[in-house]
Amino acid sequence: MGVLTHDEFFARLADIFTGPKTKGHGAIFLTQKRLTYGQDQPQQQQQPPSSSPDQPSPDQPPPPAGSFPDLAPPTQPYPILIRATNGKGKTARDRKVKLSTVVQPDEIEAFFARYAEVCKSGMAALKPRDRTKRKAKAKKKKAGGA
Amino acid sequence: MPYYAKSEDWLHQSALLLQARPTTTRITTRYHLKPARRVRKARARKQTDDTTSQPPSQDQQQQAQEQQIPDKPPRGHLVLKTFDPASGVTLKYKTSKAAEVSRLVQMLGTLGRRMAGVPDLPAPSIVTLAAEEGVGAGAGAVEGGDGEAGGVGMSRSASGVGTPTPGGSGAGAGQQAAAAGGGGGGGGKGKKKKGKR
Prior knowledge:
The complex is a heterodimer of chains A (146) and B (197).
Chain A: H1 6-23, E1 26-34, E2 80-85, E3 98-103, H2 108-122, H3 132-145
Antiparallel strand pairs in A: 1-2, 2-3
Helix pairs in contact in A: 1-2
Chain B: E1 3-4, H1 7-20, E2 26-34, H2 39-51, H3 58-68, E3 75-84, E4 89-95, H4 101-116, H5 124-133, H6 135-162, H7 168-196
Parallel strand pairs in B: 1-4
Antiparallel strand pairs in B: 2-3, 3-4
């Protein structure tokens, strides 16, 4: 499955969400990570091993770009890779659905706004907000006031 | 592999991990449904159903009500996991509340910005979202505020009545009116909710 456009991705993501809803069980996995593959920026350059400790201590400035190329502020922001699957493995490989899309840095806001909408509507089996307590409180208050 | 009790803690730790390992860290959101089963109760009910053959009594009605409980739809759970394969660090957060979803996706967005290497937006993004989520509660508060305003008006009128008698009795009347106003506010809240449903 190649990389989908956002519209296509969201449409098919909504489809995936209906799977567990109708069957009553199942899982959906959504993954996001930095997309570094095929980017022009220099990534894991082979550097001679530096003597600095593995983790930069919080009060020290970050080490020079040479020792940890990915810690240096990137010359240009990376896109994000978003993946979604319906969690079908080995036994049900033919029913496995894999989706992926790439979000450009300037599209992040818009994408996650839509993402939140799709997730909210898809995750209908979560507990709704519990209003019984507040209701009971109001009743009590009413009884006390009258 | 800790589960964090608060989503804010998870967000904070994930942000730190992402800062340390920006290229290898990935965030996985797992949403799964589990059938809501109550095996023990179901078995007990089956036995009683077999033994009892009386005309419908209160007990059986209760049983019928209990029978409906296992039919309720399966419950969903949401697990957020930040994993860095290079160091093996896993940070998790688990919830089953629908009210949290939009806030969590917002967090995914802020972490996504960090992944991309885009400078963070100033913090209010989460605050505004929290405000959005609290719209229901806010409406209730507004309603309560109306009730309070009514209460204030009533207490004023009561104090107007109470002016001829100076001293403690007037203050007492005012207190009573205030209490009644509070009750009115509560009633208003209840009404509002009924209207919503």
